[in-house]
Amino acid sequence: MPKNDFESRKEKILELIIENYINDALPISSRAISRRLRRALSPATIRNVMADLEDAGFITHPHTSAGRVPTDKGYRRYVNVLMQAKLLTEVEKKRIDESFKGKFEEIDDVIINTSRLLSSIAEEAGLVTFPTLEKGAFRHIELVEVDKDKILAVLMTKSGLVKNIIIEFEKPLKKGDLNKITNFLNTRFHGISLRNAKKAITQQLLIERDAFFYILDETKGMIDLILAAIKGERVYLEGASKIIMQPEFRNLDKIEVLLRALENPQVLSSIVKKSLDSEGVGIYIGKEIEVDQLRDCSLVVCDYTIEKDHLGVLGIIGPKRMPYARIVSLVDYVSKTLSEILG
Amino acid sequence: MPKNDFESRKEKILELIIENYINDALPISSRAISRRLRRALSPATIRNVMADLEDAGFITHPHTSAGRVPTDKGYRRYVNVLMQAKLLTEVEKKRIDESFKGKFEEIDDVIINTSRLLSSIAEEAGLVTFPTLEKGAFRHIELVEVDKDKILAVLMTKSGLVKNIIIEFEKPLKKGDLNKITNFLNTRFHGISLRNAKKAITQQLLIERDAFFYILDETKGMIDLILAAIKGERVYLEGASKIIMQPEFRNLDKIEVLLRALENPQVLSSIVKKSLDSEGVGIYIGKEIEVDQLRDCSLVVCDYTIEKDHLGVLGIIGPKRMPYARIVSLVDYVSKTLSEILG
DNA sequence: TTTAGCACTCTTAACCTTAGAGTGCTAAAT
DNA sequence: ATTTAGCACTCTAAGGTTAAGAGTGCTAAA
């Protein structure tokens, strides 16, 4: 038997081991694999192959007389080369589409719906960040006086995202001044990205300083505040209870570590940072997440966008033993759908 | 010994049993109580009293040879008559005050901060609803055209809460019409409560129908949408992981039931409804919560307000074995502080 | 009324034991 | 040169037993 076939047999067996383990959460015995191959190979042969796979680091066994379980390296190989995408069923797609049909009054409702959807279809924890306006294009700003020394800025991006910011001033602004600033911003900056707005706006402001000379500082301060406010990053996570149903987490200490981690803003934010690296759907297995408390978990993430501008991130957190083929399709589809809805 | 003293001794012992149990999470033996009374009474005597308390339904024992634990009725008596408020320490108060000192750009940040604070001081789950605008007074509305057939309504209450609502129209409105509606709303309805706004506005609209005759329907529809949008009720809950640390929840099945319940919007909303009944700080013990999945928990809640108008609810969920004396003070103080901050 | 004394109950942890699953190795079979 | 049967060996998980300890309830004496 040529080398190639030999290698491909190994791969096949690795694939079977991993898929079986993902399904049953039990170590896989040589006999089980032999049966799956319709006895084309005897358990003894499988055992030899398994020993090779173990030497190569793709599988391991919890103790001498137990079957095999995948290692991180095994899962990695599985998602990289063995797994073939398992498309969502029409029923699932329909369910996702339907769930976005409802009326959403606020962006929060959309985000919550999305994360609930992810968690409930995947039966894992679903994670969605609130969209950032940073990459959005400036469309309209409205400055409303709410007090002598307080204004409400309502900022809207081209894609229709809205943010309210309340700004306090030391000395009150005159109504005319507010209008002047509003007009200035709306006419000069229509369409430019908020991320680049600061430099552009302050420059332009200096050019037109004559018109603004006595409110220049206030105007600049206000712009700073507005741009600072849109940087905030918030994550919504739902379905931690789904994870603890998984056999590998039926253990109080593990649950405790996991729940604590998922409640920790730093952990969430480092997860989100990680996700930014990936093009398309990103898969992080165990220690690849680089969060110690999540070393028994995997993360499948994807960003969502408006007109190719990054808005936020969504994904699934669950045990490493996760039906990647399905989850990847799910995350991909939901991210596309969300992007469309917001667009 | 007169009847009174006899009764008060019973109460004292009940109090000791409950406080011990709250501290240690272990059934309390007659010997332990005797020791706590500096042997003023022998264990045998205590046992007699305990038998009475058990007959009266205040305590029970898990099995023949175990010490006593409080029943719901016992806890109820404790919080109603035995417990004396345990004020927060200055350090704790300071911590709460400090945590509200930061800059909050959005109301969401305030709510999240509050619930995190509750959860972290109480070492239980903290719960805060987002403020409803319903009871707030109308202050200002701004209607901004964002598309031919889409407008953004920015609604602000007297107390400074802001809500954005995006409204779509079948046929486009003219710019002049928008201004007309904006002016109408801002001049005629300044100061009236949003809850009563609908009737008042539609009535007034009919009186002035001549001015609006060709956009009457659109105007009415828009008002309906705006008022519907402010009804939404959202709850933020943090610290479920704190509950599962408690000895009575060191059990996978219980944790599962609990986490599922706390992720269930219906459960949360029925908790919030409950809270509306109570004047000041409300305490609900076990089945009093009227949510079967939470029959082993207690709920301590209080509403928060602006100028005596109800805005929302905050509180603590934890095991029935909860340091009520401390938690009540905490919930009370945080609710007052939050009310002040928002005012 | 209170308390000492004591039999009784029940839980918990520790320790065995055993069945069963699965491996690794060796030697025979293909 | 592989593949496979056979078998000894290992480890887990479940069940059973035991003993210690904590606490009660009752009775009879103080």
Question: What does the model show?
Answer:
The structure is a homodimer of 343-residue chains. Chain A is an alpha+beta fold and 343 residues long. Chain A folds into three domains: 80 residues, Arc Repressor Mutant, subunit A (Orthogonal Bundle), CATH 1.10.10.10; 151 residues, GAF domain (Beta-Lactamase, 2-Layer Sandwich); 92 residues, Enolase-like, domain 1. Chain A is built from 14 helices and ten strands. A five-stranded antiparallel beta sheet of chain A has the order 7-3-10-9-8, with helices on both faces. The termini of chain A are far apart. The mean pLDDT of chain A is 91. The structure holds a DNA duplex (30 and 30 nucleotides).
Q: Could you give the topology of this structure?
A:
The structure is a homodimer of 343-residue chains.
Chain A: H1 3-24, H2 30-36, H3 43-55, E1 59-60, E2 69-70, H4 72-82, H5 90-99, H6 107-122, E3 125-129, E4 138-147, E5 150-157, E6 162-168, H7 175-188, H8 194-207, H9 209-212, H10 216-229, E7 235-238, H11 240-245, H12 252-263, H13 265-277, E8 282-285, E9 297-306, E10 309-319, H14 324-342
Antiparallel strand pairs in A: 1-2, 3-7, 3-10, 4-5, 5-6, 8-9, 9-10
Chain A binds a DNA duplex (30 and 30 nucleotides) through α3.
